[in-house]
Fold:
Amino acid sequence: MKKKIWFILPLVILLIAVFVAPIVQKKDSCQKNVVTKHTASAKQLVTTRKKAKSAKLKHADPTAHWTSLTSPVKIPILMYHSISDKPGNSLCIPPEQFANQIKWLKQNHYYMLTPTQAYLVLKTNKVPSKKIVWVTLDDGYLNNYTAVYPVIKQLNSKVTINMITGFSQNQGMLTLQDLKTMKKSGLVTISSHTVHHEELNTLTAEQQKQELVASKAWLDSNLKQNTNMICYPVGRYNDATAILASQAGYKLGLTTTPGFASASQGLFALHRLRVTPGMSNYSFSHLASTY
Structure:
């Protein structure tokens, strides 16, 4: 009897090793996987919370790290139109001149504002940098895509194009696809220059409202944005314009009145500085400098 037991015992041990050990090993492996997954989830949760907190702080106050000024801020808003070689046309700046001027701004450490940033500068009297400038191009000529866009992409600079929305299908003007491409880069802001480029001070209040509202609606719908700046055609406006522009949802209005822009002018009557053909870098430096 004892011999039979000793003969069977090794077989029992072998069976236990074959069938029980893998089950235990599998259980241990499952426990390790659970621990690993919990650890990974915990790390991911911490990372997500940090990103959320950072985003919240960033959106809470975009001017948090800007510098407060003791005197009223002045913004040089540069005014361009067509970037093309057309001697004798004061609205046409040669492409080489435009490229050299953007390079000069970059080399001299100018911070190029967007309309939203310009609004915050004027409202808070705080600046993101000692040297600021706002580069604007009126009308929406096709050369803003062919001559301007490559330059600002190369230099990582920002500009604002004031588009006549009713001209988007006209020959020689920017198409909707051009506008979408440039906006997507994050370097170009598209703002309103009304629908038909009529001088607003010659229109009735209802006609002005139509030009202001319809152009903003076209930009907002097609570019998925909230357009906050209107540039008056030929710089013309009257007492009703600012009220109507504000009611339409704009926060800023640009004129062609020469000079630096300041809050004292009123946010819907901001002055600009015209860039002319053949302007030297020396003259341009004085144009852009507020100090």
User: Anything to note?
Assistant: The mean pLDDT is 88. The domain at 74-288 is CATH 3.20.20.370 (TIM Barrel). Helices lie at 2-60, 95-107, 115-124, 143-155, 176-184, 205-223, 239-248, 281-288.
